[in-house]
Amino acid sequence: xxxxxxxxxxxxxxxxxxxxxxxxxxxxxxxxxxxxxxxxxxxxxxxxxxxxxxxxxxxxxxxxxxxxxxxxxxxxxxxxxxxxxxxxxxxxxxxxxxxxxxxxxxxxxxxxxxxxxxxxxxxxxxxxxxxxxxxxxxxxxxxxxxxxxxxxxxxxxxxxxxxxxxxxxxxxxxxxxxxxxxxxxxxxxxxxxxxx
Length: 196
What we know:
Layout: E1 16-21, H1 27-36, E2 44-49, H2 54-61, E3 71-77, E4 85-87, E5 98-104, H3 109-122, E6 128-133, H4 135-138, H5 144-160, E7 164-170, H6 176-182, E8 188-191
Parallel strand pairs: 1-7, 1-8, 2-3, 2-6, 3-5, 6-7
Antiparallel strand pairs: 4-5
């Protein structure tokens, strides 16, 4: 799946994975669940949601993570606010798990990058897994060049934190050239129904 010389997470797996799957269908969800648990049960999960909600992510992850034993944090880019710490029962019914919630009112890449870095730095339970959903949504708010710079910083931070991350992009929502431009930023890319 990855080059032997690619940056690795703390357990030796590829640190940064681009998950290029159609937004509709099972491939995205299947890969997300597999990527969350490829190093075993995650100790910390950091979900970054742009257009999807934390509740959608939690629902998708049910059955593969233990929300009570996993430190869960979300950076949710949306309008409106929620309390900084809320029960996951408020958006997914995950058995009363506590979830750290950071709200960002609009797509501000500097603020988003700062929050991701802060959450990675504060994570104490390994392995640390980041799920960003999605680059398709980010690309609506910035040029490819701007998003490329943002991802260059974030993928570096993930590597420095010995974390592992995957970044969703709708493979049918962009010209092939867009995905080809982003691919070199990642240690490996999974497309469509490829296996991990």
